[in-house]
Amino acid sequence: MGELNTFPLSYKVEGQRIVIIGGGEEALNKARLVTKTTALVVIISRHISSDFPGLSIERVERAFVPADLDSTALVFVAETGVDAELAKSEARRRGIPLNVVDVPAECDFFTPSFIERAPITIAVSSEGDAPVLARLLRARIEADLPPRVGTLARLAGSLRERVEALIPSNAARRRFYETLVTSPEIDTALSRSTADGRRVALGLLDTHATEATGQGFVHLIGAGPGAEDLLTLRAQRLLQEADVIVHDQLVPNVVVEMGRRDAQRICVGKSKGSHSISQHQINHLLVTLAREGKRVARLKSGDPLIFGRAGEELAALRREGIPHAVVPGITAALAAAADTATPVTLRNVASGFLVATAHGADDSEVAHWAAIAGQGLTLGIYMGKSVAADVAARLIAAGMSAATPVGVVVNAGRPNRSLHFGQLGELSAGISDIAPGPALILIGEAVAAGDWSAATALAERTSQVA
Ligand code: SAH
Asked: Which of 89, 100, 323, 419 is most open to solvent, judged by the fewest CB atoms within 10 Å of its CB?
């Protein structure tokens, strides 16, 4: 049998009230403690003499009424008299834990001496026997505490879901957390900024995830439209950590070069027309590399989940039990929109935005887009360069107005971009020879709201062709 008459616990008060009956010095002392929480602290007394300097509290200067204890987590009584008696019996009736200042016999709980470095709390209690000793011990512990212990704890908490997803075994997870909370690198990074600390911690997590599973890890990474500064910070970090970079033809060299100098680089081609390596072979390659324990960066242009055949690669990784994650990127249509400041959704003009591929689209699909665009949605058409004339003709045949605004951006998001603007009817002349590079076609009324002042007119091409 133990010897404690109280049990220390961390009691949830978030979203609730903490009520203090009393308006003097003792009420102020308790208020100082409980305002360290997010609870609403309410001071109730007929005479509030303290002005509770710097504390965020609600003052209620009147007699206590039972409804004051609605939604209340804790009650402190720091005065005597009829209000105090009424509050005590109401708290007991409702089963709300009660502390009566300086009357241990009437207390359900005591307030320990504590150190707060949210979310870390360290409490020292003497069950009311020796508060001065408890305060002294608290001061000694405080002196030993690392300065950023609270930030570190929040960081660990924010990683929890990821850690669970990436490190299946309990023991390995514990090893990760042990390293995390003792790593001098993370402490140094946190001293610079929370974001820096998080970045270093994510790197540590990847390393542990790789070791924990004995196999590699595949990141499907969006490289953005092709400019190196349109890459996300996460993509950049993962590229630098990768042992192998497996990239598409469309990802420019400047981005592929951002990986470690000694990382292996594999181009899996798929430039239009030359199917150097099949999708099946790519899936197989990713699985094989990961099985060898490699950290694989599967770099795709734009966003990996948009027309990037990520679905097939993910299915293969899932089927083979290879740990993996997706990092989003800026997709070509949004890079094209940004280049021309085109609001792809626009109040009262375009209520939505549809991304579609022209490649292999059949008549019923094109008719479907036409219907949608006619109802005020902007279309972002990928892989449409060589078939633009055909797509335009079919959209018009399906009922779209030949006067619908059209913008074409070749090499969106890159320094060598070229802009072209006109109407759907003019697109019928085709754009396959418009400029070298990938092209994105925006169609819809909202396109006219963009800034296409630097664009060449599609109409000029029509007249040249005619
Ligand atoms: N996952 C990519 C799309 C790959 S499909 C993304 O999210 O952007 C390839 C098509 O994307 C190309 O045919 C072209 O239509 C478009 N595209 C890719 N990069 C582009 C760029 N920089 N400028 C214009 N279009 C681009």
From this structure: 89
pLDDT at 193 over 50: yes
Reply yes or no on whether 270 is catalytic: yes
Q: Ligand 1: does its nearest atom lie under 6 Å from the Cβ of 391?
A: no
Q: For a pLDDT cut of 70, what percent of the chain falls above it?
A: 97
3-class secondary-structure state, position 148: coil
**Structural domains in the chain, sorted by start:** 17-111 (3.40.50.720), 149-210 (1.10.8), 217-330 (3.40.1010.10), 333-465 (3.30.950.10)
Cα separation, 183 vs 188, in Å, equals 9
- Residue 356 CA to ligand 1 center (angstroms) comes to 11
At 76-101, the pLDDT tens digits run: 999 999 999 999 999 999 999 999 99
The answer to whether 267 and 245 have CB atoms below 8 angstroms apart is no
Taking the complete model, does pTM exceed 0.85, yes or no?
A: no
Using DSSP's 3-state secondary structure scheme, residue 115 falls into: strand
Instruction: Report CA-CA distances (Å) from 412 to 191, 221, 451.
Output: 39, 19, 14
